[in-house]
Task: inverse folding
């Protein structure tokens, strides 16, 4: 009998392991499917670095002066700003998954316009349209993934979209070394087709379904979510009336300035602002110039591939660590590393070290350290926090607004780099970025809460700063893990 008991326990243990693996596989499938959108965002970001030299070489009549090159690189964030303002209402009405599916054909069309463009005007049209699609996808992906994961693994799975974006940048750099700018656009269009079909079998977010009064049973069952993951915070009107009512508009004084909205909004806006004003897109866009200043023997394409590979590696490390160390430690370490590397880069330009000296390679070393530090924390965690910090009823609108701030900041940083360089010099510009990173460190230290292992409802309750009598007892709900 003892042997039989042991056999039975072994069988039960095996079945639980198989079921856990099956559940994990399904959540991974959803995350990878949604992350395809971030991979395409990476293709959009990396396209100009690879395509501009190709256009100048194969179709020199298209680009007449350097200002046109600047606009090819900088206009997608403007389009993305417009798209992000529309994505909030769209994903609130249509859902997270359907918003991404609707974006895929439009994204494909933007790449086809680029691939067949006979002149600069159509290239610009394709780039701004691809940027609009970036805005459509940026917030829904992170919200979708965060709402479809248990708290214990939300950090790891929620970091995969940013890892995919780094992979997209690297794919664009590597493929651009072999393909002409037209064929690079056609290759990117194939990923948009894949995005549409990969999303077809996936369920909608159970949080969104519940907020719209729809049945979320199938989605919860498909995702194998625990009650801990799908618990929600009751509103005051639900407590008083005993029933759910339509939530008030976000843009009323009572709602917008409530602690549940304004506190996470300030945190989200600030993190995405600091992400861009660390100087990241100036570094990515002007990598070639920095390598030239360092007197490196590497050619421009090798330099961009190194940057892309370092960013991908660092995001991979962040993905592994985010649910072990938490969000705050990684953000703090990221801010310190970026601050020090921007400071050293400014020193390199200020003192103008000789190229034949070891110190002549200080800009390259600073750039690599900066990319490591950025990707470890500020590269992906602000996007992860978009899906964690905002209250359920207003998550769509607030995430879209935060994405708009991020994209407008990105455009400002890219377009202002050379102007700042003329006014502050290169050294002064990098020291300014270093100062922003220092401010970011103290902001995280005093303002950003730790969300590791907490359900979305627990995070929302923390910002409310009080316990409601009829709230679900979040601490007593057991997880699946």
Result:
């Amino acid at each position: 009998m003892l042997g039989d008991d042991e056999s039975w326990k072994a069988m039960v243990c095996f079945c639980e392991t198989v079921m856990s693996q099956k559940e994990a596989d399904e959540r991974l499938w959803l995350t990878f499917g949604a992350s395809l959108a971030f991979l395409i965002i990476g293709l959009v970001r990396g396209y100009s670095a690879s395509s501009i030299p190709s256009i100048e070489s194969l179709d020199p009549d298209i680009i007449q002066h350097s200002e046109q090159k600047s606009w090819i690189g900088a206009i997608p964030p403007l389009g993305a700003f417009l798209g992000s303002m529309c994505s909030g209402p769209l994903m609130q009405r249509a859902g997270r998954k359907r918003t991404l599916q609707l974006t895929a054909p439009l994204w494909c069309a933007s790449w086809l316009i680029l691939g067949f463009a006979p002149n600069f005007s159509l290239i610009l049209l394709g780039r701004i349209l691809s940027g609009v699609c970036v805005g459509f996808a940026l917030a829904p992906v992170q919200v979708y993934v965060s709402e479809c994961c248990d708290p214990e693994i939300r950090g790891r799975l929620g970091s995969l979209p940013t890892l995919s974006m780094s992979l997209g940048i690297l794919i664009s750099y590597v493929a651009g070394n072999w393909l002409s700018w037209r064929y690079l656009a056609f290759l990117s269009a194939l990923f948009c087709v894949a995005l549409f079909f990969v999303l077809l079998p996936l369920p909608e977010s159970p949080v969104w379904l519940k907020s719209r009064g729809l049945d979320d049973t199938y989605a919860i069952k498909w995702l194998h979510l625990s009650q801990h993951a799908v618990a929600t915070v009751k509103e005051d009107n639900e407590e008083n009336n005993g029933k759910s009512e339509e939530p008030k508009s976000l843009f009323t004084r009572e709602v917008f300035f409530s602690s549940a909205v304004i506190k996470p909004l300030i945190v989200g806006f600030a993190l995405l602002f600091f992400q861009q004003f660390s100087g990241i897109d100036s570094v990515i866009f002007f990598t070639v110039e920095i390598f030239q200043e360092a007197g490196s023997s590497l050619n421009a394409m090798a330099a961009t591939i190194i940057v892309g590979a370092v960013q991908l590696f660092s995001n991979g490390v962040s993905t592994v660590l985010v649910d072990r160390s938490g969000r705050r430690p990684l953000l703090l370490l990221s801010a310190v590393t970026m601050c020090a590397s921007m400071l050293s880069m400014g020193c390199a330009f200020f003192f103008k070290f000789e190229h034949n000296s070891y110190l002549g390679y200080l800009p390259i070393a600073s750039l690599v350290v900066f990319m490591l530090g950025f990707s470890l924390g500020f590269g992906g965690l602000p996007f992860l926090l978009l899906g964690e910090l905002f209250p359920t009823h207003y998550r769509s609108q607030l995430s879209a607004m935060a994405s708009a701030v991020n994209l407008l900041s990105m455009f400002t940083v890219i377009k202002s780099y050379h102007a700042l360089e003329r006014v502050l010099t290169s050294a002064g510009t990098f020291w300014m970025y270093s100062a922003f990173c220092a401010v970011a460190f103290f902001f995280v230290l005093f303002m950003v809460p730790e969300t590791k292992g907490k359900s979305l409802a627990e995070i929302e309750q923390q910002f409310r700063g009080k316990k409601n009598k009829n709230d679900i007892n979040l601490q007593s709900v057991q997880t699946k893990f």
